[in-house]
TrEMBL record:
It comes from the Bacteria. It comes from Sideroxydans lithotrophicus (strain ES-1). GO terms for cellular component: plasma membrane. SMART domains: cNMP. Gene3D superfamilies: 2.30.30.60, Jelly Rolls. It holds the Pfam family cNMP_binding. It is found in: Cell membrane. It is a multi-pass membrane protein. The chain crosses the membrane at residues 15-33, 45-64, 76-98, 134-151. This is Cyclic nucleotide-regulated small mechanosensitive ion channel.
Length: 512
């Protein structure tokens, strides 16, 4: 037999080529379906090729008649090749086959089965080499007992990690709370569980600690989406009826789409306590859908609560102390008040409805404006509403006007900014709102109520005729925007419309 035949005959067996073909096929499948495991796949295939090259070296030694060295080298690299094949099969079964049939065992389970297969393969090769497995097992049992005693804490952590995953106590992605530490589980390892907190801290919990002590899994409930109940507390004076506070807060929150706040269960406001200091303690309860931005979501809800109460003229209650001060700043306070009134008069002059008012009437109106803030996303007016008999003037922020078609499709009409006003038809005629207005950003408004305008009209009824002209023009402009009509078509029969609106105003305000 030639040197080459001697070497190749020692290397290649009947299973070598099928084994190589199998490795290539598994590698292609993993590369196609599990690109995220590419690094592990490359390392495993590289190790398998190194083992094949090692067998080539053993064949070379055998051809050179270094028989003992050739046998040892061959056996070592056969075991190594088997380990690589077992690893590839583990990746294939646990990361492609089982997920395809909707079975997702924990990663530790994969590691255990792969390690058992490694040990079994190693024992088979030792038995094939002629070693007595009985004596090996007896010796291994004694060594295992000594190692287990010396490493009982480590083994406790390993078994704890296995138990945590097998019974699904926690999973990667869960939010847990241990004592005063809350965070997201990012990895469950053999020895420990890694938790990332909101403060960019990574806390390492030994698995045995989680097994021995209680911990909370936040936001998880059987057959329910992940969401966690939060409380936002605030105080209001006892003089305000609780039913009014609850309805105002719930209406404001329920009508607004707020990020990370669940629609079901719906947020609700409850009266928690009545303090002897003169205020009632309320809490808005809501369910948080993303557990990371907890404080920012609480802050957003506090702003919605505060703006809703301010619009209703309700002040948040704070603890008060009686302090006697010398009144030296009365002139300054009066100056600030006068400046505020002048600013309001300047704002009113931009509103066409009040262009016919004299200085005295504008001053009286300015003093009775109501400050009305809206948080981003609040519905300021709703299409079809018949109870909103007031007008808003925007002093800061932007709002969007939109209409809902009978088909259910929503259409944006225009964007309102500083100095714009809306709601004039509802204020002057009591007509239902023809469009909805939503706060595009945080918006500050002045609100004018019906009773204020009613006093003006009764004092000087001639104002009604001028207002009717402005209302007709504004209505025609809105029709153009909403229906894409040309200006001529939108303004026909203006005289008749003015007469109808003037009659409606007089009837609405009981003018003679």
């Amino acid at each position: 037999m030639s040197f080459w035949d001697n070497m190749t005959g020692y290397i290649w067996s009947d299973v070598t080529f099928p084994l190589l073909l199998m490795v290539v096929c598994i590698a292609i499948l993993l590369l196609h379906f599990r690109r995220e495991d590419r690094a592990s796949l490359i390392n495993t295939v590289s190790f398998f090729l190194i083992c094949l090259f090692g067998q080539f070296i053993s064949g070379l030694l055998h051809a050179l008649e270094y028989l003992r060295a050739a046998d040892v080298t061959h056996e070592v690299f056969v075991i190594g090749a088997g380990i690589a094949v077992i690893r590839l099969w583990g990746l294939l079964v646990f990361r492609i086959v089982l997920p395809a049939v909707k079975v997702r065992p924990p990663r530790i389970t994969e590691d255990i089965f792969v390690i058992i297969a490694y040990v079994a393969w190693f024992m088979v090769r030792l038995r094939y080499a002629g070693l007595d497995l009985g004596s090996i097992l007896a010796t291994s049992a004694m060594i295992t007992a000594v190692v287990a005693f010396a490493m009982q804490d480590t083994l406790g952590n390993i078994l704890g990690g296995l138990a945590l995953q097998l019974d699904n106590s926690i999973e990667v992605g869960d939010w847990i709370k241990v004592d005063d530490i809350a965070g997201k589980v990012v990895d469950i390892r053999w020895r420990s569980t890694l938790v990332e907190t909101r403060n960019w801290e990574t806390v390492v919990f030994p698995n045995s600690q989680l097994m021995k002590n209680k911990f909370m899994v936040l936001g998880r409930r059987t057959d329910q989406p992940v969401q966690w109940r939060r409380w936002v507390c605030f105080n209001v004076a006892l003089e305000v009826a609780p039913t009014r506070v609850v309805s105002l807060v719930e209406e404001s929150i329920l009508q607004t789409d707020i990020a990370n706040v669940a629609k079901t269960p719906a947020p609700n406001c409850v009266l928690m306590d009545m303090d002897a200091k003169g205020y009632a303690r309320y809490a808005l309860r809501y369910w948080l859908t993303d557990l990371l931005p907890d404080d920012p979501t609480d802050a957003m809800l506090r702003w919605h609560i505060m703006s809703a109460l301010q619009r209703a003229g309700i002040k948040l209650a704070v603890e008060e102390h009686s302090v006697h001060l010398t009144k030296e700043n009365e002139k300054y306070d009066e100056l600030v008040r006068q400046r505020e009134v002048m600013l309001r008069i300047k704002t009113l002059r931009r509103v066409e409805l009040f262009s016919q008012l004299n200085e005295t009437e504008l001053t009286g109106l300015a003093q009775r404006l109501r400050y009305s803030p809206f948080a981003k996303g609040n519905v300021i007016t709703r299409q079809g509403d018949t109870h909103s008999q007031w007008l808003y003037i925007i002093i800061n922020g932007e709002a969007e006007v939109y209409v809902d078609a009978p088909t259910g499709k929503r259409r944006a009409v225009r964007t309102l900014g500083r100095g714009d006003f809306f709601g004039e038809m509802g204020l002057m005629t009591g007509a239902p709102r023809v469009a909805s207005v939503i706060a595009k950003s945080d918006v500050e408004c002045y609100r004018i109520d019906k009773d204020v305008v009613e006093e003006l009209l009764h004092a000087r009824p001639s104002i009604a005729e001028e207002i009717s002209h402005i209302l007709v023009t504004r209505r025609a402009e809105l029709d153009v925007a909403m229906q894409d009509l040309d200006a001529t078509g939108a303004h026909k029969d203006l005289s008749q419309q003015r007469n109808e609106i003037l009659a409606t105003i007089k009837r609405f305000f009981s003018l003679s």
